[in-house]
Specification:
alpha/beta; Polyamine Oxidase, Chain A, domain 2; 18 strands; Guanine Nucleotide Dissociation Inhibitor, domain 1; seven-stranded mixed β-sheet; binds flavin-adenine dinucleotide; 3 domains; FAD/NAD(P)-binding domain; 15 helices
Length: 498
């Protein structure tokens, strides 16, 4: 990582020319997750509710489980989300300019085998029966640009200064990807693929490049960028199987991706609309117990008794809720995201990436607006914390708002000198355990965790069970957990007959 180049650049920077930039950290007021971990004392529960199925966690996985249950005509369930707003990593914000994402912001055009994604997208009018996509929500041009050697270029493959070796290594890499795609092990969701080549999961993506003698610096950057973008880790942190999946699982002749001003919040909001009768926000699950053949749940609001439980909250929290549950052997990438309000018209692409930066750059939330002139905009800035996660988590949490605000401005001002003069607000979201990191060995770790924890009426749904932190995985895991619970309760046969 180029952090060592980045950090000295911050030293000595003062807030010169800085207008009054408002803002602060978001979603940090209550920190209920830590209170549950520390077994704090909560208010006594307000009564007990009964449901056949209870779902813990209203991120994309929990919302998808609920969506699918409703589609089967099953509504005897509760969906409990701890935060006051549902969506998890697909949460969104809104100001007087537009809606904007807090984390996830796009879904690639679904492959033909991604039938669940297609089912949802057809229901939401994103595609028609003939498979044509609604162009309004396919990323408009210009899609991507890269700030390289002091100037912007279109597209993300570095161009300026490309050597014959760079070209040759790119060609060989593309050949590898074609051969790997043909093995049918890289699918979205990953469960649709043939059994994965476990040897690829034993080494890091960086070591795979070295093994194949692909030493081009530009190719190394492209591959590293892919790992940071999807998994929050550098190529040396990520399993080669996961790193290759990023490139080999997508059908490259398609358009896209799908994106919206509020990112995947657009999807979350529509799922919320469909399940709002069962959704309760602001209720943290804090204890799960098996009593007889039912699941007893204590929350920060009320108790719940249910016949089956879908656990769609992150796996690392489960041992704090369910006594005797093993600890998953998972690693989680810390992330910082920020939303910047820009007070003057700026020419950008949708995705604006900085070559020599630990950040991924920014996405412009106003890009998909169908307006002839946009005078103000919101940029969402993405900073993954690569390398040793525990140390990076401490670093993320130990610095204050002023520090992170300055680091964001200093990073972006290399491409946009004087940016701070046109920024009126920066809000920052810190997540210590934002997404599971698919490090080498993650495939076996996922299997071991599922095997150790799942029971016929207790199913795991969070995307971290797959290990690839993607919407497609959250949706698939949620629906599969819901399907398994309905089967365990004997409802699927009834529904099949109906
Ligand atoms: C910065 C960033 C960018 C991303 N960008 C993309 C992208 O562009 N495209 C993409 O496909 N994916 C992206 N992702 C991955 C994203 O995580 C997944 O797509 C997906 O949204 C994960 O959904 P989930 O339901 O599995 O988990 P989460 O989103 O983590 O949801 C878990 C939910 O459980 C709740 N919860 C936790 N504990 C409790 C409790 N005790 N009681 C009740 N509720 C609880 C949480 O509040 C949360 O709402 C991104 C992730 C990050 C961090």
């Amino acid at each position: 990582m180029k952090r060592r180049h980045f950090m000295p650049a911050l030293i000595g920077l003062t807030a010169k020319g800085e207008s009054n930039i408002a803002g602060g950290f978001v979603y940090e007021a209550r920190n209920e997750g830590h209170r549950i971990r520390d077994r704090a004392i909560f208010r006594p529960p307000a009564g007990t509710r009964r449901a056949r199925i209870v779902i813990i966690g209203g991120g994309m996985a929990g919302l998808s489980a609920a969506w699918w249950l409703r589609k089967q005509g099953f509504d005897d369930f509760l969906l409990l989300e701890g935060e006051d707003e549902p969506g998890g990593n697909a949460r969104w914000g809104q100001n007087d300019i537009c809606a904007y994402p807090w984390a996830s912001h796009y879904v690639p055009v679904p492959n033909t085998e991604s039938t669940l994604v297609r089912e949802l997208f057809a229901e939401l009018g994103l595609m028609d029966a003939a498979g044509n996509f609604d162009e309004r929500w396919l990323c408009h041009s210009p899609q991507e640009r890269l700030f390289l050697h002091g100037r912007w270029q279109w597209g993300l493959d570095p161009e300026a200064g490309t050597t014959a070796t760079d070209r040759e290594h790119r060609r060989i890499f593309a050949e590898h990807l074609r051969a790997l795609t043909a093995t049918s092990q890289f699918k979205l969701p990953m469960a649709l693929g043939r059994s994965p080549d476990a040897s690829l999961d034993q080494l890091s993506m960086r070591d795979w490049l070295a093994r194949e003698k692909l030493t081009s610096a530009y190719l190394g950057w492209e591959v590293d960028y892919g790992c940071r973008d999807d998994y929050g880790g550098a190529s040396g942190d990520i399993s080669a199987w996961a790193g290759l999946h990023y490139h080999a699982a997508r059908q490259h002749d398609t358009k896209g991706p799908f994106t919206w001003p509020e990112g995947n919040g657009w999807l979350a909001r529509r799922l919320v609309d469909r399940v709002k009768a069962q959704l309760v926000n602001g209720v943290w699950s804090r204890n799960i117990e098996r009593v007889g053949n039912r699941w007893h749940l204590r929350t920060t609001g009320f108790n719940v008794e249910a016949d089956a439980l879908i656990y769609a909250a992150p796996s690392f929290l489960l041992p704090y809720l369910l006594e005797g549950a093993p600890k998953p052997n998972f690693d989680y990438s810390p992330w910082l995201t920020a939303n910047l309000t820009i007070e003057q018209p700026m020419e950008t692409a949708w995705d604006n990436v900085l070559y020599d930066s630990p950040s991924l750059g920014y996405v412009n939330a106003t890009h998909q607006m169908l307006a002839s002139r946009v005078n103000r905009s919101v940029w969402t800035y993405y900073l993954p914390f690569t390398g040793a996660t525990a140390a990076q988590r401490r670093r993320l949490q130990s610095q204050d708002y002023a520090y992170w605000k300055e680091s964001i401005l200093a990073d972006l001002e290399r491409a946009h000198p004087g940016l701070r003069k046109v920024v009126s607000r920066i809000d920052i979201f810190r997540q210590g355990h934002a997404m599971r990191r698919p490090r080498p060995g993650f495939l076996a770790e996922s299997e071991a965790w599922k095997k150790a924890v799942e029971r016929p009426t207790f199913r795991l749904a969070n995307s971290d069970v797959s290990g690839l932190p993607l919407f497609e995985e959250a949706q698939y895991r949620g629906v599969e957990a819901a399907r398994a619970c309905l089967a365990a309760l004997g409802f699927i046969k009834k529904l099949d007959r109906a």
